[in-house]
Design goal:
Number of helices: 14
Oligomer: single chain
CATH topology of the largest domain: Spore Coat Polysaccharide Biosynthesis Protein SpsA, Chain A
Distance between the termini: 43 Å
Number of strands: 9
CATH architecture of the largest domain: Alpha-Beta Complex
Largest sheet: 9 strands, mixed
Strand content: 15-25%
């Protein structure tokens, strides 16, 4: 029998959609998978759904705890993993039937410690997944080049999710998610990859990320979003400790584009925290715009994508230069999603 793979799923108030994640794992063509469900103090029937799955399937285990956030749920799940390899899936997403067999084959073929695939975004009104027509492209990195590659892809895009990966469990020993925080994947994954000798990354999308109106990633700006600044600072400090110039440069870019990331979220999704007054909202936009302008030329010379540079330029001119086009795009996209 192939080595056991443990998959940790933090669960919070997802009773109606938890089956997406769990059923996709039960359908894996890799035959030796255990599923660790951690109910993080849900106020709906999510805990009952977890227990029902655990009673029905021998390879599913349900644990319950007081609400402490996704990080604390993942940390608890890790304590109960028995597998030689570990993966993570969020409770409102799902994976391709061959995701873990593919990730495992990459590890074996390249004698690697960590393997990774790409993520495909899926709208709540368009759940059908079209088969990928991409030609497989695999990147293999070793030693410090692993961290350089990680910093490069996270600078250009959002490649920091641990849900993309399959890890040798031994890499995770002594590393914990920062609890009670957003954007905790950013530094956690860096710390884990720092322990790796070889990393292999594929461009094939095998993880399907559901974006809904209630998803954390699809919500407007909240005060907790400032934690992206904290995560970027932690990442910069970690890179500085290693002392590699390329790592430090990418960390500076990551930190410099933080204001853009948060300002773009506000432009697209608005504010989702009622405690933020209209006056304070204007101040937040003004402060982020100031920071963006201070870093404008540095970001223009950085390796971030051209479309991001265009958005940065629009925001640097005036917040509404991006807010109005994004509002039109969102309206068109919503109409298109409903009619597909």
């Amino acid at each position: 029998m192939k080595p056991l793979i443990s998959v940790v799923i933090p669960v919070f108030n997802v009773e109606k959609i938890l089956h997406y994640a769990v059923d996709s794992l039960l359908a894996q063509d890799y035959e030796n998978v255990e599923i660790i469900l951690v109910n993080d103090g849900s106020s709906d029937q999510s805990g009952r759904v977890c227990d029902e799955y655990a009673r029905k399937y021998d390879n599913i285990f349900a644990f319950h705890k007081e609400n402490g956030g996704q990080s604390s749920a993942r940390n608890l799940g890790l304590k109960h993993c028995r597998g030689e390899y570990v993966g993570f899936v969020d409770s409102d997403d799902w994976v391709a039937t061959d995701m873990y067999s593919y990730l495992y084959s990459l590890l074996v073929e390249h004698n690697a410690d960590v393997s990774s695939i790409d993520i495909q975004l899926v709208g709540e009104h368009n759940l059908e997944i079209e088969p990928s027509r991409l030609s497989e492209k695999v990147v293999v990195k070793e030693d410090v080049d692993i961290l350089r590659y990680y910093m490069e892809i996270t600078t250009k895009d959002d490649g920091y999710s641990v849900c993309r990966c399959l890890f040798k469990k031994q890499l995770l020993e002594g590393v914990a998610f920062r609890e009670g925080k957003f954007y905790e994947d950013i530094d956690y994954k860096f710390l884990v990859l720092r322990n790796a000798k070889k990393f292999v990354d594929s461009n094939l999308p095998k993880y399907f990320y559901l974006q809904t109106q209630v998803s954390t990633s699809f919500a407007g700006f909240k005060r907790k979003e400032y934690q992206l600044v904290e995560a970027s600072d932690i990442l910069f400090n970690l890179c500085s400790e290693i002392g590699d110039k390329r790592l430090i440069y990418y960390a500076k870019v990551k930190r410099a584009r933080t204001a853009f990331s948060l300002l773009a979220r506000i432009a697209y999704l608005g504010f989702a925290d009622d405690s933020i007054t209209p006056t304070e909202r204007k101040k937040i936009i003004r402060n982020f715009t100031r920071d963006l302008r201070l870093n404008y030329w540095f970001l223009m010379a950085s390796p971030i994508p051209v479309n991001r540079k265009l958005m940065i330029t629009a925001l640097a001119v005036h917040f509404k230069c991006l807010q109005i086009p994004l509002a039109c795009y969102k309206a068109i996209k919503r109409k298109t999603d409903y009619t597909k």
